[in-house]
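Appendix B. One record, verbatim.
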Amino acid sequence: MGSKITAKYAGMCKVCGSDWAIGNPIFYQKEPKAICVEEACFTEQGGSISKSFQSSFTRSSTGGGYQREKIKFIVPDVEVPDGVKACAEMVQQVIVVSHHLAISMYPELDTESQTFGQIRSKLADQILAICSMREHKD
């Protein structure tokens, strides 16, 4: 199975003559050998694209990347006790602290990036775990 990769070397398709430069996206497959910038030519050479992480996403109608399919969330119609509301408020407070902590630890990181979100989430988990341990001690 092949995949779309970033070219490490400049080259030219032996079938259709399309060329690419270092850094261009190309379709590549080792066995049977298939390589081209054009997906149609790549498949004519016997190449096939493997399912990837992005296969669970759909192409945006604006052409700006991939998006997951939208799902409908069903919110139960139940009474929420004050204790649960207090816990939810604590989670929000921890997220705020985690956000500022992540900024102080990684000032060069874009706060809207997925990496930043993952770091902030992990910090929130760690803070909540420490809070939980402290509650059990008391």
